[in-house]
Request: fold
Amino acid sequence: MIPPQQARVLFVDYSFGSPGDAPKYVMHHLYFDGAVSPVTTTPGPVDYTVTPYSISTSGPITIGPPLKGKNWVALNGCCEPGWPHRSSPVAMNGNLVGGQLFAIDWKQTNDQGAFYTGDKTKNESYTDYGSEVLAVADGTVTSILDGQDANAPGVLPAEDPVLGPKLTVENVEGNHTVLDIGNGAYVFYAHLIKGSLLVKVGDKVTKGQVIAKLGNTGNANASHLHFQVMNGPSAIASPGIPYVIDSFDYQGQISPQSMYDADDYLTGNFFGLDHRPTPETRTNQLPMAWTIIDLPG
Reply:
């Protein structure tokens, strides 16, 4: 039931054995009860065909890892509904834009599966804080934002009566940068440490080059790297595009329920029962939501 003057977004997933099996177009044929004209007050049957939607079968692009080291968790990754990123399209220029469809919040545990050691109220206690952020491909820096101070762990600015009003579309992702990596693809790195960006607009970077350090700025309640690939230079107005990482070692999965149950500081041990002491090497794959991996470098 959709009340008058409201709207809903419905996500429909299709699975195919290979990109070549996917159709060139998909057309939705909808049957529902609703207003059959602007003056109707009683619902009636509606038979409606939606404009055909073109499906790209060019496949994902291949990139290198945005970080290096052990025990990286793909928080809020593809493709579970109901979690941030996947379910966060925004209205922009008359369209719904899913820029974060394939985004990942990368966060690192220690070897015991915990995100921090010691004082949970200090950013420096978190395993990933200050980690080197890497260019995933050769490219050119198209934009940066620096100068945002670090947040205190455990506090999401959007839910704070003092910090919330200070968030804008320009600073909500904190200190960040965008790289043009060619062929219409751009990569976005967010929540970086103030003053850690080693690049400026117009700089050329090479794959694996250190460009900044992972932090806790913008609308974040803990240190992490927000990473996404998109088809334009704007992080909010450019649709996300799929990608794969050329090489990583798969350790297993953490439990989504453990994240539901965690406090705002992400306290606990998050290695699940399927955690593997000997990781499996994977090539040209996208780590899905809650995956634990080791990244080369």
